[in-house]
Amino acid sequence: MIVGVPKEIKISENRVGMTESGVRQLVAEGHTVLVEKDAGLGSGITNDQYEKAGARILDTKAQVYQNAEMIVKVKEPLPEEYDLLGENQILFNYLHLAAEPKLTRVLCEKRVKAVAYETIQKEDGTLPLLVPMSEVAGRMATQIGAFYLQKDKGGKGILMGGVTGVRPAKVTIIGGGVVGTNAAKMAVGLGADVTVLDVNTSRLEYLDDIFQGRITTLFSNSQNIEESVIQSDLVIGAVLITGRKAPTLVTHAMIRRMGRGSVVVDVAVDQGGCIETCKPTTHLHPTYEVEGVIHYCVPNMPGVVSRTSTYALTNVTLKYVSMIAQMGLEEAIAKDKSLFKGLNVYNGYVCYEPVARDLGMEYRPYRLS
């Protein structure tokens, strides 16, 4: 199969869909890999490294799309890429279609075979292609929150861990999954007073166990969320419902009751966000204020720690890229149930029910033969 790796064009997105080691493996398996010129520079991978691994370097994005049977990238195609997509072309990347109605319609109209990293799901419910980026985003969320709590950044002027005789920052994390757990690890490491809320009591038991009493765990309901949020210096939204728009759990009224200079970081913003006052921002202009509270809502947070993120991502995506390239998409999803759950658009229709429901589009399931 001919696999194309275009350069990402989302603002400050420095990741790339495949490392040079991934290219080497695909070429060894007999496939052709086309890489757009300079696609890897943001992750510290040169054109020469790709060529030594066996890739062909193409000068333009259009050349990659026109010649590739499968496109492997990181983020969803942007409007300037829509016309480059071809009928029956396989698109393999993070899509988050529940928050992207226009892109979803384009994929249907162009009859693209779209497989979303974020909905590939194992039988135990885990999301293997989300885990590494969720780890990165969770750790970054705390780091970013600590940064914006500084007075020179508009924050309260609070040190996360406090010092002797002075209380630490209060941090509330809504969602105890991979993002929330990693955010908590960083916050605990910095000495903060940490509360994690989740609706899964088994998950709360697990967090109590691994943190050995160093965090407070609360069942996630509107009262506990409100009481925790209004007392917090930093709130991190870490809610995920696989493939669906995130529920709004933190209201504008709660934000209004937070102290001026508090910070919120909504990691769920790429799925619509779980904080009512959040809207997508960029790494160039990452924050804005509502009711005196600093909001950081960048959908591609890992894009600025691109080398770590790119290598972590290829570690988990390459298995599936190799399967699709070797067997073709239809045979690959027939043989791997987790990959089958990643199929979002096929033959002109949405075939992933949560996306169809959230967008009010026709759901036409893909039938395994």
Largest beta sheet: strand ordering: 3-2-1-4-5-6-14-15
- For the record, the count of structural domains works out to 2
Point out poorly predicted stretches. Answer: none
Main β-sheet description: 8 strands, mixed
Compressed to H and E, one letter per element, the order equals EHEHEHEHEHEHEHEHEHEHEEEHHHEEH
Under the CATH scheme, which class of the largest domain? Alpha Beta
The N- to C-terminal Cα distance equals: 22 Å
Tally of helical segments: 14
Oligomer: single chain
Task: Give average pLDDT, whole number.
Answer: 96
In the CATH hierarchy, what is the superfamily of the largest domain? NAD(P)-binding Rossmann-like Domain
Query: What's the shape?
Result: globular
How would you describe what is shown here?
With 369 residues, the protein is α/β, with parallel strands linked by helices. The protein folds into 2 domains: 2-120 and 306-359, NAD(P)-binding Rossmann-like Domain (Rossmann fold), CATH 3.40.50.720; 131-304, NAD(P)-binding Rossmann-like Domain (Rossmann fold, 3-Layer(aba) Sandwich). 36% of the residues lie in helices and 16% in strands. It is built from 14 helices and 15 strands. The strands form 2 sheets. It has an 8-stranded mixed beta sheet with strand order 3-2-1-4-5-6-14-15, sandwiched between helices. The chain has a 7-stranded mixed beta sheet with strand order 9-8-7-10-11-13-12, sandwiched between helices. Helix 2 (47-53) links the parallel strand 2 (32-36) and strand 3 (56-58). Helix 6 packs across helix 7 (178-189) and helix 11 (306-327) packs across helix 12 (329-335). The longest helix is centred in the C-terminal third of the chain and has 22 residues, at 306-327.
